[in-house]
Amino acid sequence: MKFRHFLSVRNLLRRPVRTAALVLLSVFMSFSVFAGSVITASLRNGLESYSARLGADVVVVPYAATTKGTLESVLLQGIPGNFYMEAPLYEKIRRIEGVEVAAPQFYLASATASCCSVAVQLIGFDPDLDFSIQPWIRRSYEKELAEGDIIIGNRISMPTDRILSFYGVDCRVVAQLDETGTGLDTAIYANMDTIAAMIRGAQERNFHYFDDIDPANAVSCVMIKVKDGYDPELVAGNINIHVRKVSASKAGSMISGIAGGLKNVSAVIGLLTAVIWILAVVILAVAFAMISHERRREFAILRTIGATAGMVSGVILGEAAIQSLIGAVCGIALACLAIFPFHTAISSALGLPYLMPRISAVLLYAGLAILFTVAAAAGISAFSAHRVSRQDAGILLREDN
Amino acid sequence: MELRAEGAARFFLRKMKSSNIIYAVQKTDLTLEPGQLAVISGRSGSGKSTLLNMMCGLLKPSEGTVWADGLDLYSLGDGALSRLRNEKFGIIPQGGSGLGSLTILENVMAPALMYGKGKEIRKRAGNLLERFGIAHLSEAFPKELSGGELRRMAIARALILQPEVLFADEPTGDLDDENTALVLSVLRDAADKGAAVMLVTHEGSAAAYGDVLYAMHDGVLSGN
Ligand SMILES: Nc1ncnc2c1ncn2[C@@H]1O[C@H](COP(=O)(O)OP(=O)(O)O)[C@@H](O)[C@H]1O
Ligand SMILES: [Mg+2]
Q: What is the SS3 assignment for A218?
C-alpha cells in the first residue's frame, strides 16, 4: 500500500468521531437519492402496470359503484367490492356505436375463506370475450381455465394444486400471476361458470350482496375496447346518454388521476432529496474547510519530511473518498432495509400502484447514488486540498494564528 | 552539501500605521557548511524561524536566492524540492511535530516510507529510538508522549535518512536541562559526522556547542 493511502486510512481510524460524522453525511446523501429514485421508479412502474392491467379503452360500472369509488378501490387497494348491474344493461352497452368488444367481469368478495385472513376479491371473466385479463394470465398459465380452476394474484401465498373452498365450491389453484403492484395482486380469478357456482353457494348461505338483482343474470363491470377510429371519450359519452343506471368512463381518465398523484409524490420526493443534498453539501463544505484549517500544521509537517503538495492533496482526497464511499454504501443498505420490506405499506400509504423496477435498474440507481455521493465529497475536499497546497509550507507550519 | 543564502529576504503583509508590509527577515547572506554547527540566537519575533524556513525550502524568499551546491533551491519544482528535503535535509520544526495518527516508530520511519524505502530503514529507526531513550514508546501515539519525548522523536525522524543538512528550530525550547544537553550533543555529533547544521535558539548554553555564532535582531542577521 502506498504511504499516502496508508496515512488516509490511519487518519480515518484514529479520528473515529470525526470520521463517523462525515460518513453520516454521506449516508444521508446516498440514502435520499437512492430511496427517492427507487420509490419514484416504482411508482412509475406501478402506473404502467396499472394501465396495462386495466387494458381497456372504456370502463363501465353500475352507478352505485362510482359514488363510492368502488372500482378504484378494488383496482388500487384490493378492497373487495360487490356491485352489480342487470344483464340487459350489458346487452345495451354492447350495441352502442363504436364498441368493438364488451367484456363483462363479475366481482364477488370472498367470505373469510380457508386461504386468506382477509376477504379477497373473486373476479370472474368470460374467456370468449375477455381481452384484458387473459393476456396477462397467459404469462404464467398456458391452458384454458376449466370450471373449478382458479388463478391467484401475486400476493396470495398458496402453492399450486392446493384446493380452496369459496361458498362451498372447491377450487384448484392452477397458477399464480406476476406482480402488478396494484390491488389485483390480492385478487383471485376464475371463469364465469366457477363464479356462478359460488354465487349460488353465497345465496344458499344467505349473503345479501345482490340486493334485488338476480346474480345469475348480472355483471359487475364491463371492459370495452372501441372500434378503430372511435374516440373512447365519445363512446363513453354515448353509453352514459343511452344506458341508464351505469357510468362509463374513459380508462385514460382513471389513469390520469393516478398519474397526477404520481407527479405530486415525485415532486415532493425530488424536493426533499434536493433539500437534503443542499444541506449536506453545505455542511460538508463547512466541515471540510474547518477540518483542513485545523489540520494545517499536520499537513505542513508532512511537507517538512518531504511530501509534495500533491501527496498532501492525495491524503485529503483519499480520506474523503474512503469515508464517502463507506457512507454511500451504508446509505444504500439502509435504504434497502427501509424500502424493500415495506412496499405494501408504502403503496397503501400513498394510495398509488407501486411495483419494484427490475433488479438491474435498482443496481443502476445504487451505482449512480454512490457515484454522486463520492463525487460530491471528492469535489468539496478537492477545494480544501487546493487551498492547502497553494500555501507555502513555512506559513502553514506556524502554530499560532 | 553547502547551503548559501544570498540577499534572501522575506516580508509579510500586515496592517500597520505607516506601511502594509513588514520585513520578517531583511536581506541576508548566510552560508551553512558541511561539518559546521551554526547557532543563530535572537529574541522571539526576530525572524529566526522565517530565515530557517527559507533555508530549508519551506518558504520562498520574497527577494534573493538560496543556493544548494550551486543550484537555486526555489527554481526547482515542488516534486524535486520535496525530494531534496526528504533525502538531503532533516528538519526539526519549532514546537510539537508528531503526526497524530502514526505511532512513534511510524513517525520516525515516515520520511523513508513516503518514498517506499521502509524495510531497510526499520533497524536504523530502532537504533535511533534506542539512542534517544524512547524505544519503549515505539508503539505509542504522539499524544501519549511528553514534550521532551516528542522532541526526541522529531530529532530521530530528522536523522532517519542521514541528512546532509540538519535544521533545528528551537529544539530545546521547552525542555529540562538533561534533555537540552542531550539534544545539543546530538546536533554537535551530526556536525562532527559531516552534516551542515543550522540551530535556531534563544538558549544561551547553545553557543558552547556552535562553530559559528550569529545573532538575529529585528530581521537583521549579524555575525560575531
Ligand atoms: N505568515 C506570517 N504572516 C505575517 N507575519 C508573519 C508571518 N510569519 C512571521 N511573521 C512575522 O514575522 C516576524 C518574525 O517571525 P518569526 O520568524 O516566526 O520569528 P522568531 O522565529 O524569531 O520568533 C514576526 O513579527 C512575525 O509576527
Ligand atoms: Mg520561531
A: strand
Chain centroid offset of residue A131 CA: 25
| CB-based contact, A393 to chain B, within 8 Å | yes
State the DSSP code for A15. Answer: -
- Which of B137, B140, B2 lies closest to B67 in space, CA to CA? B2
Instruction: List residues bridging with A225 in a β-sheet.
Output: A101
Cβ-based contacts under 8 A for chains A and B: 80
- Most B CBs within 10 Å, among A6, A305, A308, A388, to test the B interface: A305
CA distance linking residue B184 with residue B172, whole number of Å: 8
How far is Cα B37 from Cα B195, in angstroms, rounded to an integer? 8
Determine if residue B118 is left, alpha or beta; phi over 0 gives left, psi from -120 to 50 gives alpha, anything else beta: alpha
Distance, C-alpha A332 to centroid of its chain: 17
Assigned C-alpha cell, A241: 346518454
Q: Are A100 and A226 in contact (CB under 8 A)?
A: yes
**What is the CA B19 to chain-centroid distance, rounded?**
32
| Gap between the Cα atoms of B35 and A36, Å rounded | 69
**DSSP codes of every residue in B203-222:** -GGGGGG-SEEEEEETTEEE
Domains of chain B: 3-100+148-223 (3.40.50.300)
- For ion ligand 2, residues whose CB falls within 5 Å: B 49, 94
Put simply, whether B94 touches A (Cβ < 8 Å) is: yes
Amino acid present at B2: E
Residue with cell 553547502: B2
Name the pairing type of β-strands B3-13 and B220-223: unpaired
Query: Which are the contacts of A360, defined by CB distance < 8 A and separation ≥ 6?
Result: none
- The dihedral over CA atoms of B114, B115, B117, B119, expressed in degrees to the nearest 10, equals 30
B105 touches chain A (CB under 8 A): no
pTM attached to this predicted model = 0.84
Q: For residue B87, which residues of chain A lie inside 8 Å, CB to CB? A: 306
Helix (H) or strand (E) holding B48: helix B48-55
CA distance A385 to A317: 7
Q: Is the dihedral of CA A326, A327, A328, A332 positive or negative?
A: positive
Q: What span, in angstroms and rounded, lies between the C-alpha atoms of B4 and A394?
A: 18
Distances (CA, A) of B30 to B66, B72, B214: 9, 14, 10
**Residue A327 contacts residue A22 (beta carbons within 8 Å):** yes
Alpha helix ranges (H) inside A55-145: 63-67, 70-72, 87-95, 134-137
**Residue pLDDT tens, chain A, 401 long:** 789 999 999 999 999 999 999 999 999 999 999 999 999 999 998 888 888 877 888 989 888 776 655 777 777 777 777 888 888 889 899 999 999 999 999 988 887 655 666 678 889 988 888 888 888 888 888 888 888 899 998 888 888 888 888 888 889 999 998 888 888 888 899 998 898 888 888 888 877 776 667 777 888 889 999 999 999 899 999 999 999 888 888 887 778 888 888 899 999 999 999 999 999 999 999 999 999 999 999 999 999 999 999 999 999 999 999 999 999 999 999 999 999 888 878 887 887 888 888 999 999 999 999 999 999 999 999 999 999 888 899 999 886 54
